């Protein structure tokens, strides 16, 4: 915080420019969709010249891949943070499902992920770039989930947490259509019931065992 | 079947042309996405002149709305038919989940629905047309589910069946990325376990009660 712009190193300034370009790509994807996302638009949103942008990212594919990685890494960190904030004694599985919806999947920046997921279906080049990002992320998610959760019935906690996001992604698709907050609440509650039959926070599992 | 083309009524020919245009729109959406779907392309795929097409559908919005209704009505009929085909004694809930995936959500024509759902997010005019179609459909689905299923725990069977499609829609988004059939199988199995704890076919519920 005390570091003035003048005293920033080249590396710090470069990281900051990349972060700004990732944020701008996320905004652009959410607002204009994948087809409407261009390097020119992203540079404009980031407030950088096209040349400055091309110093960091040479193509739309580079930009979108970096933005996806940045966004998904952030979502994973947020997921872990959310889980840690929920206190024993509360209905923590319900709290986790609600937070995952409210703070992650239903937040506007998450629309960018939806756009990328859909674009990948008909764009093999993009898929080739996004696939390794996703594979790495799902390994990190599995590792994080292993430190947070156990299951009552021997099912895989990483699978159950992954399915939570799968369901919420499907819900976010439908929520765009129905705009029915009561239906969303019912789905979140029903899933929390079903998940809570199986999933427990690791400290509760230790207390019970 | 015995009706020759010559003996078809005007109404029959018109219905057939509309059906062909809906099928062509579905193909076009699945292959070229919403942005790449144009009335010209649809007329070409349907093998109709642009004039003939415009006699039935005046705009892309009309075409896409009609195609969505046609596709979703077909999916509902298919869902009911699939449920009726599963015989007591089998693990019918698992069979239902697998069929819903294999025969509906994962089938290529379902990509058209995904395209429409995503397009709706940033297109208020399209949403205004698709919303009533969806509302009518979810009432029909609820009515159909009421004749097919009960729950063991007082939860709403229509909600659970709806959530099945919500989860599978999310899964179809991810399946485009991961191309990991083993993961898909694990999700289907885990959901069948969770759903089977609560949902029963109505004839089994009657036998048990």
TrEMBL record, chains A, B:
Residue stretches making up the HTH tetR-type domain: 15-75
A single GO molecular function, which one? DNA-binding transcription factor activity
Q: Which parts of this chain does the entry mark as a DNA-binding region? A: 38-57
Q: Which domain of life is it from?
A: Bacteria
InterPro entries per the record? Homeodomain-like_sf, HTH-type_TetR-like_transc_reg, HTH_TetR
Pfam families, per this entry? TetR_N
Q: Which UniProt keywords apply?
A: DNA-binding
Q: Do you know which PANTHER family this protein is assigned to?
A: HTH-TYPE TRANSCRIPTIONAL REGULATOR PKSA, HTH-TYPE TRANSCRIPTIONAL REGULATOR RUTR
- Under which name does UniProt file this protein? TetR/AcrR family transcriptional regulator
């Amino acid at each position: 915080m005390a570091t003035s712009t003048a005293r920033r190193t080249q590396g710090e300034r470069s990281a900051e420019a990349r972060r700004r370009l990732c944020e701008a790509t996320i905004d652009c994807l959410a607002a204009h969709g994948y087809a409407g996302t261009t390097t020119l638009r992203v540079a404009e949103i980031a407030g950088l010249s096209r040349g400055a942008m091309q110093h960091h990212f040479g193509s739309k594919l580079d930009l979108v891949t970096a933005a996806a990685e940045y966004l998904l890494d952030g979502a994973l960190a947020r997921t872990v943070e959310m889980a840690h904030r929920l206190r024993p004694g509360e209905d923590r599985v319900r709290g986790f499902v609600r937070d995952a919806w409210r703070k992650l999947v239903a937040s506007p920046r998450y629309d960018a992920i939806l756009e990328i997921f859909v674009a990948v279906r008909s764009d093999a080049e993009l898929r080739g770039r996004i696939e390794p990002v996703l594979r790495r992320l799902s390994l990190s998610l599995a590792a994080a989930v292993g430190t947070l959760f156990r299951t009552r019935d021997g099912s895989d906690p990483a699978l159950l947490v992954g399915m939570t996001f799968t369901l919420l992604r499907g819900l976010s698709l439908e929520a765009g259509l129905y705009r029915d907050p009561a239906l969303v609440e019912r789905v979140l509650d029903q899933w929390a019931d079903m998940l809570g039959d199986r999933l427990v926070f690791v400290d509760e599992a230790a207390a019970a065992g």
